What does this fold into?
Amino acid sequence: MNTEQLAFIQTVLDHWDIPPVQSIETLGGKDTVFKVATVGETFVLKDIWNAPDLDRLAFTHALLEHVTRAGLQVPLPYLTRSAQFVVPADTHFYLLTKFIEASEYPRDPAQLPELFFNTGQAIAKLHQALATYPDKDQSQKTWREDPAGRVPGWMSTLGEGFPAPQAAVIERTLRERGAVMEAAMRGLPEQLIHRDCHPGNVLVQGTRVVGFIDCDHICIGPRFFDLSYYVLHHLKWVTEDKAATDHWLTSLPYLLSGYNSQQALLPEEVVALPYGMMAYHLMLAHWSLSRSNFESVALEVRALDWIDRHFDVIAKAIASG
It folds into this structure.
């Protein structure tokens, strides 16, 4: 960062009552997220770009306060000196939260079962905290994620607009599993969920989960959604590596064991998990296509194909958890 950028960020930070700043650096290679070290705490300053929904921010703040009281670390926004959630500056808006210290994910495959167990346990604790949030009007303050309801739309287009190899996989998958996928995910209990529960948003130190970030997508949906989303992100990068997929399969039951150690999933939710993985890949493939990101389309559809071809093994591994 150059001197002018640092001065600008310091001007933004002056809106909060925080200790003197010692250093400012970009976080995770993003020029919209900054790690701010002070003589006391360390913070994260995030450029959230467009004009924010202040009602949504108020809902998220109150909800995250509740989650914090349950003993979980989440990026609770700090109020400015004038009791605002965000600071407008140069057509952008900035949000300040607590920095949660974390490490890189373990690379040793032997640690994957322990990581999955601890993550399943942490997601269950998060779900428990979210389920006890006392706001009776939450359905008016956030949206509902309905994976089952999206399947008919995907079936109606059947790979329309996709490159031929990916279109063939999507068409086959929806033809052979679409109706069952929709039925398996329909009618399950719903509550507040994280909704963006990929490994980048689940912070760890070693194999221990220390917090959840990017909680601005919290919405109402089925519990299996967070578990499916988390575990498929460990798989989709390694589908062409048999040793890695074998480790993933043998570790998969530990995610369920960790979750069930805190609260039990219903049998119907367990059945829905592999379908949830497939639905997410369909969703991400369609999202990537809408942005003409064909490399991501190929990645998502390759993982979808792998899950389809190994579906029975995956379902058996999940059931054993």
Notes: The radius of gyration is 21 Å.
